[in-house]
């Protein structure tokens, strides 16, 4: 499902696209004040960076997590439409703020470049998908979106249809001693997506071990509904 | 839209799949207590049975309604993602609890076996779908999901796009003397699905008559938007 | 994506279809009182007119806006399912009420006839869509759905994925002096659609100018995600 970057534009607002998820990055150097007041931002900034996608919330949020570590910017909005173009999950609208347009542009460039990497543990089949994410040190985007403690290891374990995520979550918690942040499901903490999503925190080795154990079980379960689930980019976990 | 059950797995959590709706059944013999606390269950149990699907909430809920009648289990969660893989309706995540894993496994087996039957009055076309359900004696799943009085006849009358469900509902109520439990629509009682859904209760003959009258009108209306709507399994009502 | 109107029916409830969006129009001459109580209508009426669609909320709402100006009817419900058959936006369920079935039938006929026109500034690509709407004099449907002041010019500026709508909105507000009614996005004021939508009001020339400026930027941005976005009906703005 790689997206062709066919078009180009000389619009100053355009930063670039990522080759997956219909992901586009943009900046507004000096946002209109009436628009800013109506965007439901956590804090108002002169310059905004925007990462927007049809498919994927986790990968883009994790990519922005890296971007805000590397730049002088702040996450001011994370929204998750019910999308994936008929798939079971979310798209994403993430906005970062800064006082200088070069900072927010740099943040969006860093995030766009990292999006394919963070799709490395997204596995798709005709019946559903799995998503695994892991960071040894969560930053502001994981905190904003998922309540991850900043500076600690964080893991995301998702399965679709949602029941697969329930069993993956149970497997993860039996595999290693980690803290549960929350479990999201169609009626709780998702935008009615068909996902079961466990968010965990704790010791980095334990979080990674829990994520890997869940991935193994998820691949087997989703495989019973048809063909073997495949990732489009190399696994990073 | 029958789903191939290509894969197999020896995972003890896997129970089976149904040949429609990307429906998978699973059990957890002894659920992790931290997971259980985060699943938003009506009551906590040692063993959980899980029925999860991309397409269909009504058929799976009706199938679990039969399953809990037949086993020593209880419905502890019914969640309805906005799904159907680009269609107009819901998927489902249904969890039953029990104190013995053999009970919950049996419940999921019974439900999986009954799912195709309960798709018998689901009619699809490229433009939308109709769904009719009927039981002479509603049990816990219909009560949990739709507020149906336990032990009385219950009927579900749905049309998509939603306006078709409005006219079907009006037809049903003029055809027989039944009680309205509720009318669900995109902004009320659905997960923003494009369905109009009348839930009725009452005398079993009257409920069945109302459902049949609505089906006739729904087939004519949905047919005006393209080809004749078709069911993939034999009608049971 | 024009929908064939293959079928016909002699049902008195059927009014017609529009050749886009799987849009169907129906009437109920004398609505069942129990159904009426459960429909969450703003006011109850003897006769109801129903416009229901899989794809498009803006075009149908704008078409009903014209219809209620032209007939003795009132908008009593506007609901927006998350739909578009796997696309990024909404479908719609719009109900108008009247005391005479001939009035509501006429309203639905007028709306159905105007739907293609109001799709004139909907631009689609595989990656997303843009929607622009404009009226020099908003009426009850725009007021009900979007809070537009009745009798004043109103404009709708939408982009999907949602971030494109943010930049279009910023462009619009810098192009002309208009009032912001609201900005809708996945988590605010939509049904979790992947759209950014600016609603504006003000002087008719200014509103139109803002809409046109946003359209130009939106076409460039959406084009970077693949092929050039196309409208299926002639632009009316």
* Integer average pLDDT of chain A: 96
**Strand line-up in the sheet with most strands of chain A:** 9-10-8-7-6-11
Indicate the overall shape of chain A.
globular
Radius of gyration of chain A: 17 Å
Output the helix-strand order of chain A.
EEHEHEEHEEHEHEEHE
Uncertain regions of chain A: pLDDT < 50 for 5+ in a row? 1-6
Number of helices of chain A: 6
Largest sheet of chain A: 6 strands, antiparallel
Beta-strand percent range of chain A: 25-35%
Based on the structure, what is the oligomeric state of the protein chains? homotrimer
The percent range for helix content of chain A is 25-40%
According to DSSP, the number of beta strands of chain A is: 11
Which pair of chains forms the biggest interface, and how many residues does each contribute? Answer: A-B, 41 and 41 residues
Structural class of chain A: alpha+beta
Separation, N- and C-terminal Cα atoms of chain A: 21 Å
InterPro entries (chains A, B, C): BMC_CP, BMC_dom, CcmK-like_sf, EutL_PduB, PduB
Protein name (chains A, B, C): Microcompartment protein PduB
Keywords (chains A, B, C): Bacterial microcompartment
Subcellular location (chains A, B, C): Bacterial microcompartment
